[in-house]
């Protein structure tokens, strides 16, 4: 009896896998696209339809990363390591409801590609992003268990905001190498220039980490760091 149940379960799982593959093959006209506006980082006009829920970065096919597919997700946590996101696949009647019973839970670790976050940047994300908030993340690279992505938020009906750029515009991080993309590729330099322009805006406005100290603050810091003054303070403490 146990063997029959095991065989039936295995057969059902194989059947679901075939059905999912069939859906992917016959829904190629669909595209996972978000509404993009002037502030969007969207650089891939088309992405492959997928119905499988990814619970680990290693589960995502190599071709998805190579083609910079854009996936939909739901934010759970913001940590110093990145965003913990639940992947939300395309929903297909009947297929999706059955798949949920067999799919394991798990969150994807999504990092803002090309951005070195400052501690204030992490705090800003924790404050601005809401739990269970829907996001889009475009795959650029994969490193171990983390995904290097462009992260998009819908702001209104026809506008998307790229978090990678927004962080830099607020002066809450620095431009870094975009891991996962070839350094000499057209896409790399296209995105790198956009990130540099965002960082330059914060630098010109002295925002965040680029905020200049006032003259009196600079003088005070120089005095407090002076070796003679430090020696006097030690002598006074004795």
Key phrases:
238 residues, alpha+beta, OB fold (Dihydrolipoamide Acetyltransferase, E2P), five-stranded mixed barrel, disordered N terminus, CC033 protein, membrane, transmembrane
Overview of the structural elements:
40% of the residues lie in helices and 21% in strands. The N and C termini lie far apart (85 Å). The longest helix has 25 residues. The chain has 8 helices and 8 strands, in the order ααββαββαβββαβααα. It has a domain of 154 residues: OB fold (Dihydrolipoamide Acetyltransferase, E2P) (Beta Barrel), CATH 2.40.50. The chain is globular and about 65 Å long. The N terminus is likely disordered. It is a single-pass membrane protein. It is found in: Membrane. It comes from Aramus guarauna. This is CC033 protein.
Q: Architecture of the domain at 57-210, according to CATH?
A: Beta Barrel
Task: Calculate the terminal CA-CA distance, rounded to whole Å.
Answer: 85 Å
Estimate the mean pLDDT confidence: 76
What's the helix-strand series? HHEEHEEHEEEHEHHH
Shape: globular
The first-level CATH class of the domain at 57-210 is given as Mainly Beta
Largest sheet: 5 strands, mixed, barrel
Query: Which residue ranges are poorly predicted, with pLDDT under 50 across at least 5 consecutive positions?
Result: 2-6, 22-40, 42-49
- With helices defined by DSSP (H or I, 4 residues minimum), what is the helix count? 8
Topology, number of strands: 8
Q: Strands across the major sheet, in which order?
A: 1-2-3-6-5
**Derived structural class:** alpha+beta
Main location: membrane
Keywords: Acetylation, Membrane, Transmembrane, Transmembrane helix
Organism: Aramus guarauna
Protein name: CC033 protein
């Amino acid at each position: 009896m146990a063997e029959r149940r095991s065989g039936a379960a295995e057969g059902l799982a194989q059947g679901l896998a075939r059905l999912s593959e069939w859906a992917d093959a016959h829904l190629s006209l669909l595209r996972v696209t978000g509404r993009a506006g002037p502030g969007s980082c969207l650089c891939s006009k088309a992405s492959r339809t997928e119905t499988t829920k990814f619970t680990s970065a290693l589960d995502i096919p190599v071709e998805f990363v190579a083609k910079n597919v854009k996936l939909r997700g739901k934010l759970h946590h913001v940590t110093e390591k990145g965003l913990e996101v639940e992947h939300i696949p395309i929903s297909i009647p009947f297929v999706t409801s059955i798949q949920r019973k067999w799919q394991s839970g798990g969150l994807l670790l999504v990092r803002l590609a090309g951005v070195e976050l400052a501690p204030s940047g992490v705090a800003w994300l924790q404050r601005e992003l809401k739990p269970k908030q829907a996001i889009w993340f475009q795959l650029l690279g994969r490193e171990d268990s983390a995904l290097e992505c462009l992260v998009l938020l819908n702001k209104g009906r026809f506008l998307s905001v790229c978090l990678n750029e927004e962080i830099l515009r607020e002066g809450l991080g620095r431009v870094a190498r975009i891991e996962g993309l070839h350094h000499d590729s057209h896409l790399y330099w296209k995105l790198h220039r956009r990130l540099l322009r965002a960082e330059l805006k914060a630098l010109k406005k002295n925002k965040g980490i680029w905020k200049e100290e006032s003259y009196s603050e600079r003088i005070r810091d120089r005095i407090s760091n002076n070796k003679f003054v430090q020696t006097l303070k030690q002598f006074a403490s004795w």
